[in-house]
Fold this sequence. Notes:
Elements: H1 9-12, H2 15-31, H3 37-41, H4 46-60, H5 72-76, H6 83-99, H7 104-116
Helix pairs in contact: 2-4, 2-6, 6-7
Protoporphyrin IX containing FE binds near residues 36, 56, 114 and 117.
Pfam families: Bac_globin
Organism: Ramlibacter aurantiacus
InterPro entries: Globin-like_sf, Globin/Proto, Globin_bac-like_CS, Hemoglobin_trunc
Amino acid sequence: MTPVETKSLYQRLGGFDGITRIVHDVMDAHLSNPLVAPRFQASEDLDHAKQMAVEFFCAGCGGPEAYTGRDLLVAHKGMNISEQEYMAAMDDILGALRKNDIDDATRGEVTAILYSLKGQIIRV
Ligand code: HEM
């Protein structure tokens, strides 16, 4: 019999602690990725942005945490983020998932969710 996937996406990403580790790795990757680093270096409060990203990720994956940050569209409005920057950021996220031993199927689900958000990020 084929095993049925019973764990939620949130659980498969390691819950709050796992997602926190992943987001920290994502931010480290952004800061050493020349395609996006200047964007994050320009942030006035990177720790707060990181905290908001953890909440966003947790809430978006079915976790109990509430997202208390700005609407995605509002947060990225006026930055004029390009398609290339968006792809570079996605690659950083996928790299962090791999680094944290997240399996292929789960990485695929996260990719689909991120892709669905692009209209709120690119050139808004
Ligand atoms: C699907 C992809 C993305 C998601 C889910 C996402 C999510 C978020 C979230 C939740 C925040 C915090 C909002 C808040 O402070 O209230 C944020 C902030 C930020 N995002 Fe994104 N983001 C994405 C893509 C990008 C890209 C491609 C860039 C630029 C290359 C970018 C640049 C930034 C910057 C610079 C901030 C900090 C703004 C500040 O400190 O004022 N984001 N993002």
